[in-house]
Amino acid sequence: MTAIKNTSIIEGNLADEPKCFQKNDKWAARVSFTILHTERRLNENTRQWEDGRTTAVRVDFHGQQAERYIRLIQEHEGLFAKGTAVVAWGSPSDNPNAYTDREGKPKATQTLNGTRIIPDQIVNQRRQGAKRNANPAPAAQAQPSRSIDDDPWANDTFAPTHPEEPAL
Fold it and tell me: Cα separation of 73 and 115, whole Å?
């Protein structure tokens, strides 16, 4: 007899801050993340990127896993802030996230029973770099130009800069 475990990996941005529900007398702890992903396509005619369909997935953690994520969220404020790029693993839930949209139409999104979620450091660092490049910091005072003679690592020996320092 064989068993198959279906694991899904979701990449996207957090739609909101995680919703944390502490353990109480009736319920186990639960943390819920909503992840959005919008497809981007290159328009061959205009050579511009255009937004496509947006997909939403809710990722739920229960019990001890949820308690660990609640502690992590409390200890590292902003780690899972709205808009943060994340990667989540989990198995599809039998119960979709059903709701009514603004126009009164019934909708449902996929729900995963999460096994882990982490910030996508590569995407988040790339975004930070793009923000820095778009808004450069004020220019610092000009540094005096340096020559190879000023570089202690330019040759194989390190010469002391002060006579009282021992040579290495």
Answer: 16
